Amino acid sequence: MIFTVAGKELRALFSSPLAWVVLAFLQVTMGWILVTRLDAYLSVQTQLMQMDTPPGVTEIIVAPIFGAAAVILIMAVPLLSMRLIAEERRNQTMTFLISAPLSMTQIVLGKFVGLYSFLMLSVGLILVMAASMYLGGRLDLGLLGTLSLGLALLIAAFAAVGVFFSSLTAQPVVAATATLATLLGLWLLNMSQASPDSPFLMLALIRRYESFTKGLIDTGDIVFLLVFTAVFLILAIRRLDSDRLGG
Amino acid sequence: MNAPDQNQTVRATDLTRQFGDRVAVNQVSFSLNRGEVLGFLGPNGAGKTTTMQMLTGNLAPTAGQVEICGIDMLERPTEAKARIGYLPETPPLYRDLTVNEFLQLAGRLHRVPKKELAGAVESAKQRCGIGDVGQRLIGALSKGYQQRVGIAQAIIHNPDVVILDEPTVGLDPNQIRDIRALIRELGGAHSVILSTHILPEVEQVCSRVQIIHKGRLVFADTLGGVKEFRGRSLMLGLRNAPPIEAIAEVPGVGRVEPARGGLFRIEPQPDTDPTDALVQASWDNGWGLFQLAPAVSSIEDVFVQLTHREETV
């Protein structure tokens, strides 16, 4: 059932021009960063050869792409997630899902999975781009693995925030703005002057992601991102339930 | 109470719903059997839609209970919902899907087995007369077609209970006839709850009528019962009619008012039957009696009387 709802969301995404524009934008930007990084790499290649343990292609070219992808997705996810529930509310099609033999959990998870699969598709495209480096060299598969894992978890967290804000309102634009503000806020938390071990900074998403880009797998970060995702999804489910109760 | 009658498809017990201080639906109880078509009437804002939302699990009742085929809507909502087909006031349609895609989605969400899905879509389209628009986008269809897609979506999984909120709004007269025929047909094997403002529609398709007013059920009876509602009135036809005052003087006659076709509607005084006296008076005075029959009241009479009267209280 979750996948039936997810399939419907995917179809809705692909039948709107917005999703295609976002995908194209993401791809062009990623491509552009790839080319500039490749250029930079080639120009310093001879110097790198003289180092004892030179950084590899993956570190210099692929890791920055993933870093940039995270930032671009902060802007892209709200655009894609805003319609999920808000628009169904506005068009009064939510009744269709609620009258069907589905639980609220299935509805919310279905929408989340639909959005997530779409976003993972864009990660897949980035991976394909990274794999093109194989044409002229070697890739550090371990680092590539942690980068992908990190981005996958990060996107789940983004998508969950998007689903939650979409469940709060009947105005997609409001949902998008709130999602963007929240994601940017969490991303930029570490720019504050607080001491490095302030509990405030624990929430800074960028710090959670950073360790992955260094090739580290920290269970703390993984658990944090998973819990973060779960909390927002549960909040969205509760919100839909209270719609039914409160009216 | 847990020995569900096989035939009983809907049972609502003391349904109550408050929005803040306002009581939208107040202790509404009724039940419905297989094969019955229930007409649900009421003025705007009487609580019809709220009641339907509670029956379909879209809104949780403040108090009371809903059972669909013996399954409690609050305890086992998904099982109960699987037995309901619901067309809300605004048909819930995804404008960027084609009719076929949308009906397939509806079928899958309502757990129609994969093997039967294509057949179910086809038969729902056939029954609602939208066989020829399967490939078109819902957003590009006219209001009437959209309405019929909405009905198709409600019956695709062959539910035990079909709940239709004003299904004939926006249809042309031919389509309305088709839909009414469809509702009668559905009434054969399923239960149908039909909310509408169009009173003749109820007379044509419903076997039972309920009127809700200010959140309370004020009338619930079979269609036959409606006709007896004011059955004490008589319709009197006279060839040489005297002035109304003369008729009013006949013993037992309470009020006389002229009705259509030169007839008079006679309201008897309480606990009397003026029939014999009227025949006698007509014979004595040569009024030329040609008709004396119990007045048949229409749903409109009942509706106006019940919902109007309460307002003046």
> From the helix content, strand content and strand pairing of chain A, which structural class follows?
mainly alpha
In N-to-C order, the SSE pattern of chain A is HHHHHHHHHH
* Largest beta-sheet characterization of chain A: none
User: How widely separated are the two ends of chain B?
Assistant: 37 Å
**Low-confidence sequence ranges of chain A:** none
Tell me what the CATH architecture of the largest domain in chain B is.
3-Layer(aba) Sandwich
What do the pLDDT scores of chain B average to?
Answer: 84
Overall morphology of chain A: globular
Largest sheet of chain B: 6 strands, mixed
Instruction: Give the count of structural domains of chain B.
Output: 2
Number of domains of chain A: 1
Q: What is the percent of helical residues of chain A?
A: over 70%
The average pLDDT of chain A is 87
- According to DSSP, the number of beta strands of chain B is 14
> What is the fourth-level CATH superfamily of the largest domain in chain B?
P-loop containing nucleotide triphosphate hydrolases
Determine the most extensive contact between two protein chains.
Answer: A-B, 24 and 30 residues
Describe the structure.
The complex is a heterodimer of chains A (247) and B (313). Chain A is 79% helix and 0% strand. By secondary structure, chain A is mostly helical. Chain A has one domain (2-246). In chain A, α3 (57-81) packs antiparallel against α6 and α7 (141-168) crosses α8 (172-188). Chain A is globular. In chain B, a hairpin with a 2-residue loop joins β9 (208-213) and β10. In chain B, strands 6-7-8-3-9-10 form a six-stranded mixed sheet, with helices on both faces. Chain B is of the alpha/beta class. The model of chain B has no long low-confidence stretch (mean pLDDT 84). Chain B has two domains: 8-227, Rossmann fold (3-Layer(aba) Sandwich), CATH 3.40.50.300; 232-295, Alpha-Beta Plaits (2-Layer Sandwich), CATH 3.30.70.100. Chain B has helices at residues 48-55, 77-81, 99-109, 114-128, 143-155, 173-189, 199-205, 223-228, 244-248, 275-285, 299-312, and strands at residues 8-19, 22-33, 37-41, 63-68, 71-72, 84-87, 161-165, 191-195, 208-213, 216-222, 234-238, 253-258, 263-268, 289-294. Chain B is built from eleven helices and 14 strands. Classes of the chains: A mainly alpha (247), B alpha/beta (313). Chains A and B meet through α1 and α5 of A and α2 and α3 of B.
